[in-house]
Every structure is written in C-alpha cells, then in structure tokens.
Specification:
This protein is mainly alpha-helical and about 140 residues long. The protein has one domain (about 15-145): Arc Repressor Mutant, subunit A. The protein contains 7 helices and 2 strands, in the order H-H-H-H-H-E-E-H-H. The chain has helices at about 10, 15-35, 40-50, 60-65, 70-80, 105-125, 130-145, and strands at about 85-90, 95-100. A two-stranded antiparallel ribbon has the order 1-2. A hairpin with a 7-residue loop joins strand 1 and strand 2 (about 95-100). It is elongated and about 60 Å long.
Length: about 140
Amino acid sequence: MDGDEGPGPELQGRLGYLLKHAFFQLEDLHTVHLADGPVNVRELSVLLLLEGREPESQQQAAGRLGVDRTTMVGLLDSLEGKGLVARQPDAADRRRNVIVVTDAGRRALKKAKAASDRAERELLADLSPAEGRQLRDLLARILAR
C-alpha cells in the first residue's frame, strides 16, 4: 500500500474515526443480515425498545430512542403497515394512544434479533468472546455517564 492511501495513522488512531467506521461496518452487516426479514435495523431498534415493556406513547418511545417525533411517526407507520405494531387507546387515559407489539411483531422481532446477533458476531469475529464482552462493557460505561 502506498503511503498516500488510506486515512493515515494520525486520523486512523482517533476514537471518533474508529467508532464511526465500526458503526458503518455494523450498519452494512445489519443490512445484509436483515435483508430477508420483515424489518430494517431502525425498525428493529423500535421493536427492541418496546419489547417486554408496558405500552407507551409514541412520544415516550421517541424520547427513549433519541429520535425526533417525525422520525418516530415514520417508523411506527411502517411497522404498523406491516402489522408488527398497533396504536391503541391507553386504558388509563383514553385521550392518549399507546404502541403495542403484535403477535406478528414478536415473531418478526425474534427473527430480526437472530439476524442482528449474526451481524454483531461477524463484526466482532476477530475478537475473543471475552474481548467482545469487554468492548460492550466499556462502551456501556462510557454511555452511562
């Protein structure tokens, strides 16, 4: 490789560069592994967020996912169109709608989680299982601050 190719050692050693490009690789792997399923990686995030929780409003879900309201509406519209989530009146407050995962959504989530797990394993293939856990733990510590 010629010394003028690639980002160079100064940039390649920066945390931002490393995190960004690892994320891009993971996104590409998710695209490949989720291609045969009913959801994309953004929709998978919504289903994972809603899984096993009390139903909540789309505004609450958007806040926890860290997306704006318009983006959340689009994601939910897509998932609802596929029959994977439903908007229902809140039993405690009829003026408010909550989002629930349907039976089809739970089946799709199971399949998508398996595909996502394969994508993550492929990304981390050069790490030992202990190193993969350590990477997750270290990133979680950073995000918990």
